[in-house]
Amino acid sequence: MGIGKKVGTEVREWASLGILVVVVSLILLKFKLANPGDITCSTGYTFNATANNCMLDTNNSVTTAINGVGSTVDTFVSAFSEPKNWAAIVIIAMIGFAVMKIAEQKKKNR
What we know:
Elements: H1 2-34, E1 45-48, E2 53-56, E3 63-64, H2 68-79, H3 83-109
Antiparallel strand pairs: 1-2, 2-3
Helix pairs in contact: 1-2
Protein backbone atom coordinates (compact mmCIF):
# COMPACT_ATOMS: atom_id res chain seq x y z
CA MET A 1 0.00 0.00 0.00
CA GLY A 2 2.92 2.36 0.69
CA ILE A 3 4.20 2.25 -2.90
CA GLY A 4 0.73 3.09 -4.27
CA LYS A 5 0.52 6.09 -1.97
CA LYS A 6 4.00 7.25 -3.04
CA VAL A 7 3.17 6.86 -6.75
CA GLY A 8 -0.11 8.74 -6.24
CA THR A 9 1.75 11.58 -4.54
CA GLU A 10 4.32 11.75 -7.35
CA VAL A 11 1.59 11.82 -10.02
CA ARG A 12 -0.21 14.64 -8.20
CA GLU A 13 3.04 16.63 -7.94
CA TRP A 14 3.81 16.23 -11.65
CA ALA A 15 0.22 17.12 -12.56
CA SER A 16 0.50 20.24 -10.40
CA LEU A 17 3.71 21.21 -12.20
CA GLY A 18 2.03 20.69 -15.57
CA ILE A 19 -0.94 22.83 -14.54
CA LEU A 20 1.41 25.56 -13.30
CA VAL A 21 3.32 25.62 -16.60
CA VAL A 22 0.08 25.82 -18.61
CA VAL A 23 -1.22 28.69 -16.45
CA VAL A 24 2.08 30.59 -16.78
CA SER A 25 2.01 30.05 -20.56
CA LEU A 26 -1.55 31.39 -20.78
CA ILE A 27 -0.65 34.45 -18.70
CA LEU A 28 2.38 35.16 -20.90
CA LEU A 29 0.29 34.84 -24.07
CA LYS A 30 -2.27 37.29 -22.63
CA PHE A 31 0.55 39.75 -21.95
CA LYS A 32 1.75 39.34 -25.53
CA LEU A 33 -1.74 40.01 -26.89
CA ALA A 34 -2.31 43.00 -24.59
CA ASN A 35 1.08 44.52 -25.50
CA PRO A 36 1.72 46.33 -22.20
CA GLY A 37 4.73 48.60 -22.36
CA ASP A 38 5.16 47.88 -26.08
CA ILE A 39 6.56 44.39 -25.38
CA THR A 40 5.09 42.97 -28.60
CA CYS A 41 4.73 45.94 -30.97
CA SER A 42 6.33 49.37 -30.95
CA THR A 43 4.25 52.49 -30.40
CA GLY A 44 2.12 53.19 -33.45
CA TYR A 45 1.70 49.52 -34.31
CA THR A 46 -1.06 47.06 -33.41
CA PHE A 47 -0.49 43.35 -32.87
CA ASN A 48 -2.13 41.11 -35.48
CA ALA A 49 -2.58 37.74 -33.74
CA THR A 50 -3.60 35.96 -36.94
CA ALA A 51 -0.41 36.87 -38.80
CA ASN A 52 1.73 37.10 -35.62
CA ASN A 53 3.14 40.46 -36.70
CA CYS A 54 2.66 44.18 -36.01
CA MET A 55 0.57 46.40 -38.32
CA LEU A 56 1.08 50.14 -38.61
CA ASP A 57 -1.93 51.93 -37.10
CA THR A 58 -2.21 54.41 -39.98
CA ASN A 59 -1.68 51.85 -42.77
CA ASN A 60 -2.50 48.19 -42.13
CA SER A 61 -0.52 47.04 -45.17
CA VAL A 62 2.74 48.12 -43.49
CA THR A 63 3.86 45.36 -41.14
CA THR A 64 6.89 44.59 -39.02
CA ALA A 65 8.08 41.66 -36.94
CA ILE A 66 7.15 41.42 -33.28
CA ASN A 67 9.61 42.75 -30.69
CA GLY A 68 12.08 40.56 -28.83
CA VAL A 69 9.92 40.02 -25.75
CA GLY A 70 6.97 38.85 -27.84
CA SER A 71 9.28 36.54 -29.76
CA THR A 72 10.68 35.16 -26.49
CA VAL A 73 7.14 34.43 -25.25
CA ASP A 74 6.48 32.52 -28.49
CA THR A 75 9.65 30.49 -28.01
CA PHE A 76 8.83 29.72 -24.35
CA VAL A 77 5.28 28.62 -25.08
CA SER A 78 6.18 26.55 -28.12
CA ALA A 79 8.97 24.83 -26.18
CA PHE A 80 6.44 23.51 -23.69
CA SER A 81 4.13 22.30 -26.45
CA GLU A 82 6.65 19.65 -27.52
CA PRO A 83 6.27 16.24 -25.80
CA LYS A 84 10.00 15.51 -26.14
CA ASN A 85 10.75 18.59 -24.04
CA TRP A 86 8.40 17.35 -21.31
CA ALA A 87 10.20 14.00 -21.37
CA ALA A 88 13.54 15.79 -20.97
CA ILE A 89 12.15 17.85 -18.08
CA VAL A 90 10.92 14.68 -16.34
CA ILE A 91 14.27 12.92 -16.82
CA ILE A 92 16.25 15.91 -15.51
CA ALA A 93 13.89 16.20 -12.53
CA MET A 94 14.25 12.49 -11.74
CA ILE A 95 18.05 12.74 -11.86
CA GLY A 96 17.95 15.81 -9.60
CA PHE A 97 15.61 14.01 -7.20
CA ALA A 98 17.93 10.97 -7.10
CA VAL A 99 21.00 13.15 -6.44
CA MET A 100 19.13 14.93 -3.66
CA LYS A 101 18.16 11.60 -2.05
CA ILE A 102 21.75 10.33 -2.26
CA ALA A 103 23.02 13.54 -0.62
CA GLU A 104 20.40 13.22 2.15
CA GLN A 105 21.39 9.59 2.74
CA LYS A 106 25.10 10.47 2.97
CA LYS A 107 24.28 13.28 5.39
CA LYS A 108 22.32 10.86 7.61
CA ASN A 109 25.21 8.36 7.62
CA ARG A 110 27.70 10.89 8.96
